[in-house]
C-alpha cells in the first residue's frame, strides 16, 4: 500500500495490518450507503420491501454506537494495551460482519451493525497508536499522514466497490470483511508491537455511553417515525421526551463527572465550540447529500448499484486531492476562509441539484456538476473544521478534545439521515418524491450556508493558523478516542 512508503522493511507488515484494518472500517460508510436500496428490497414488508425509515437504522445504529464508544475504547487501549484492544476490535468487526451477511431480517441486521460499530470503535483510536509504535521516530509524521490518507482511499474506492458487490448480492458487502478480518487478526497477532499501557486509572464515565445512545437514538427515531405516526402522537412525543431527558442527564454528568465521556467544558473555548458547531451542521448536510444521491440514482433514475457507485466517484475522489492542494492556503490564510468557501461551494452543489434535477437521467447536466461542487466543498471544509477544533485546544487536552470532534461528526451523520427520512416521509421513494428531494437539498444548502457563516466567524478569531491533520499531535495520538474515521 502507498502508506508504507518510507517505512523500513521490518515494520512494513505491521504497518500494512494496521492500515488494512483501518481501510476496512472506513470503507463501511460508502459501501453501505450504495447498498441500502438493495438491502431494503430483500426484506419484504407486505411485498414492497422495508421502508426508508426502517432502513435508516442500518446507517444510524452504526454511527450512534461508534460515537458513544469511541472514547471508551480509546481509554481502554490506554489502560489495557493498544494491541489487545485493536485485535479484539478486528475480531468483533469481522464476526459482526458475518452476522450482517447472514441476517434473516432487518432487526438482526441492525443489531449486527451495532456490534460492527463496537468493533470499529475499538480499532480506530488504537490503530494510530500502534502505527506510531511500529515505525521509527523520524517516520512518525509520514505515518500519521498515511493513516489519515486511508480515509481518502476508502472514499474513492467505496462507491464502486459497493456497486460491484451489490451486483452479486448485497450480503457480500459484509461477507468480504470476514476473510480480510481473519487475515489481519492472524498477521496482527504475529507482528504487531506491544506498546506499554499508559494508564492504570478508571475508565471514563461508562453510564455516559448508554445515555448518549439513548438520546441520539430517541431523537432519530422521533424524526424518522413522525411522518407516519404524526408529530403530536403519543409515541413521537415520548421519544422526544426520552431524547431530551437522556441528553440533559448526559450533559449534567459530563460537566460534573471527574472522568466524563466527553469533556463538554471544552465547548466553552470559542474557536473549539465554533468548529464543532460547524462540524455538526456541515456533517448533517453531507449525510443528506450522500444518501439522497444514492436514493435518487437507484429509486428515481432506476440505475443499478454499480452504475450509481461509478456515478458517485467524482465527489469523494476530489476530497483528498483538494485537501492536499489547499494545505498551504490554510497555513497562509487560516482555517476560517477555507471553511467559508467550502460551505459556499457545497451550497452551490445542493442548489444546482434542486434546480436541475429531473426524473429523466441527466448525469452530465445534473449530478456531475453537483458532485464536483460538493466534493470540492467537502475537501475544503470538512477536514479543516476538524483541524480548527484540534488547534483551538490546549496541548494537554488535544486527545480528549479530538474524541469529541470525531464523535460530533458521527452524530451529525445520524441527524442528517434522520432529517432526510423525515423530509421524504419515511416510506418508499419513487418519482413522486422529487419535490421532497428538492426540499432536502434546500435544507442541506441552508446548513452548508450556515457553515460558511461559521467559517467567517473563525476568520475573525485571529490570524492564520497552522494547518494540521485532523488527528492529534503525535505525543498524544494514542490517547482516548483520538482517531475517528479518517475521512468519514
Descriptive overview:
- By secondary structure, the protein is mainly α.
- The chain has 17 helices and no strands.
- It has helices at 9-42, 52-80, 82-102, 106-134, 140-168, 172-175, 177-191, 208-229, 234-256, 270-300, 305-311, 314-325, 327-333, 335-356, 363-391, 398-424, 434-459.
- Helix 2 packs parallel to helix 4 (106-134).
Secondary structure topology:
Elements: H1 9-42, H2 52-80, H3 82-102, H4 106-134, H5 140-168, H6 172-175, H7 177-191, H8 208-229, H9 234-256, H10 270-300, H11 305-311, H12 314-325, H13 327-333, H14 335-356, H15 363-391, H16 398-424, H17 434-459
Helix pairs in contact: 1-2, 1-4, 1-5, 1-7, 1-10, 2-3, 2-4, 2-8, 2-16, 3-4, 3-7, 5-11, 5-12, 8-9, 8-16, 10-15, 10-16, 10-17, 12-15, 13-14, 14-15, 14-17, 15-16, 16-17
Label this structure with key terms:
mainly alpha, 75% helix, disordered N terminus
Give the helix tally. 17
Instruction: Give the % helix.
Output: over 70%
Instruction: Quickly give the structural class.
Output: mainly alpha
> Helices and strands, in N-to-C order?
HHHHHHHHHHHHHHHHH
Give the mean pLDDT.
Answer: 84
Instruction: Report the sheet-strand fraction.
Output: under 5%
User: Could you tell me how far the N terminus lies from the C terminus, measured between alpha carbons in angstroms?
Assistant: 20 Å
Secondary structure tally: strands: 0
**Describe the biggest sheet?**
none
Low-confidence stretches: 1-9, 463-488
Query: Whole-number radius of gyration?
Result: 21 Å
Large-scale geometry = globular
